[in-house]
Design goal:
- The chain is α/β, with parallel strands linked by helices.
- The protein has one domain (5-213): Rossmann fold (3-Layer(aba) Sandwich).
- Helices cover 38% and strands 23% of the residues.
- The N and C termini lie far apart (71 Å).
Amino acid sequence: MKETYIKEFTEITPNNPVLIEGLPGLGLVGKIALRYLIKQLKPKKFAYLYSPHFPYFVLVNKKGNVRLLRGAFYYYQNPKGSDIILFTGDSQSQTIEGQYEIADRMLDFSEKHGVKTIATIGGYRMEPKEKPKVYIAATDQTILHKALEAGATLSTSGSPIVGTAGLILGLSKFKNIEAICLLGETRGYLPDPQAAKSVLEVLSGTFNFELDLKGLDEEIQKAETMVSKLQAIEQKRVLQAEETRKQEDKKTTYIS
């Protein structure tokens, strides 16, 4: 395999579809959000994306079979509006060239299937004080204002959006495709279902589709418990370090 390619194994005929992308990144916000959308909408898987720019190992299942890392496309026929194509995967590209190549292939694929709007999802490194905010950036003012009305916050000027989530926005203009990026506030070092939930609230409001988000509450509780445990461990470590420093200070002698 010398370059990224997409293998379609089922034909689809989408109606004015929106593509939603979420890959592993900060806090796994995009991955968790897409996993939940797939669980709730029960879309049909119809294509895989393979790339030599993914990490160089295979995954082994319970039966001992192996497969390459990949991305997967899903199709949801929306009875109340535009159809939805979902894209998620095992990993992001590990090279700069691969990031551009994968984003470009995705845009070609979107154009082929009549996609006029793409939404990308990721994490925004920040210590949330309360409910995580969702920062947005877009290539079109109309969709930007829809997201703001749905509860999003405008991304600060000069903030870089790294990876596929950002590059799709930059490259989408060459394909005349509108694009918006939604970034959920996250600590970034643990899977963050709370940030994913905030993003999904804005996403469903922006694109007018119903989504029951109660199923994320149990994951959120588990994540909060883990954060509390880690914070307690860190606090204990700091206290122990301070006590050690004090003991060392007592042992210090000075020669005048």
